[in-house]
Design brief:
two-stranded antiparallel ribbon; alpha/beta; single chain; five-stranded parallel β-sheet; globular; 303 residues
């Protein structure tokens, strides 16, 4: 399909006269189009869930979440990967983003790099991509050469390939193990895919990464339990998380945290199971660090 024929490049008849609208009418037009994004993403929930179910065992087994893209799509991937690190206690080796043109492309537009299939292959080869890894490749058009080539290289190495695009049956969608394709339609400003397509990508990436983190035991109830108490602020946050998770006082949470050597998941299991440090460690070891499973396992033993 020719680039100009893509749905994301078509004119939107609902915003044809946006330049003549009042400011309030203008933002209302944009907001109405954003509602369409949520509905388009909703239609992809089964595909998103399937991708999460395929990705989390690889991540659990030591694989990495690697985001790949060019331009806006690449920047959003880098943001998602970067935010996962402090939120869920991950290292920069466990999740990161690759963008066409490298770090400079995060703040500057670098011409032609998105058209280079070889650059994508070089970028992924440099991080020693392997079969345990998960590659999340994003391109609104679904045909950016850098991104399509990256996904092809990932699959050649046996990695799991998840492809985000906003065009059905795009090269990226056809290539992906798990294509996710919310069809958001023409942009409010013709061709400006940082708008609806970008919003859709952010929503999808949020679901993918959050789902993988939950499934991998980085969340207990709805609390982010892998916070590392490294200063006064994070120590207070850790105590609050433990207290809320276990319905106990912050004083009891602080004592458990001290006994657990500042390990929040261990402190939670310690309180929830009313066992010893050794028993709590054994439960977490048996469940690969999943607090919910550790507590459930303890309950089954008591029964």
């Amino acid at each position: 399909m020719h680039f100009d024929d893509l749905l994301t490049e078509q004119r939107n008849h609902r915003s044809t006269h946006i330049d003549r609208e009042s400011t309030l009418e203008m933002v209302a037009t944009i907001n109405r189009e954003d509602h369409r994004v949520a509905r388009a993403v909703q239609k992809q929930l089964p595909e998103i869930a399937a991708a999460i179910d395929a990705a989390f065992p690889k991540f659990d087994d030591g694989g990495r979440l690697i985001y790949v893209g060019a331009g806006t799509s690449g920047r959003l991937g880098v943001i998602d990967a970067t935010e996962l690190q402090p939120t869920y206690g991950l290292t920069a080796d466990q999740t990161f983003g690759l963008i066409a043109g490298g770090a400079e492309a995060l703040t500057h537009t670098i011409q032609a790099v998105e058209d280079s299939p070889e650059l994508a292959q070089d970028d992924l080869a440099a991080v020693n991509l392997g079969p345990k890894d998960v590659v999340i490749a994003s391109a609104a058009s679904g045909q950016t050469p850098y991104t399509v080539s990256a996904l092809q290289f990932a699959q050649d190495q046996g990695a799991l390939g998840i492809g985000f695009s906003c065009i059905e049956d795009s090269p990226l969608a056809k290539l992906a193990d798990y294509p996710i394709t919310p069809v958001v339609g023409p942009e409010v400003i013709t061709g400006a895919t940082l708008l609806k397509a970008g919003t859709a990508e952010k929503m999808v990436l949020n679901m993918l990464s959050t789902g993988i983190m939950i499934k991998s035991g980085k969340v207990y109830q709805n609390l982010m339990i892998n916070v590392v108490p490294s200063n006064g602020k994070t120590f207070e946050r850790a105590k609050k998380i433990i207290a809320e998770a276990t319905q106990t006082s912050t004083l009891a949470a602080e004592r458990a945290l001290d006994r657990a050597g500042n390990n929040v998941p261990l402190a939670i299991v310690l309180i929830e199971t009313k066992g010893t440090i050794a028993e709590a460690k054994a439960l977490l070891g048996a469940t690969n660090g999943h607090v919910s499973q550790a507590v459930k396992l303890s309950d089954s033993h008591q029964d």
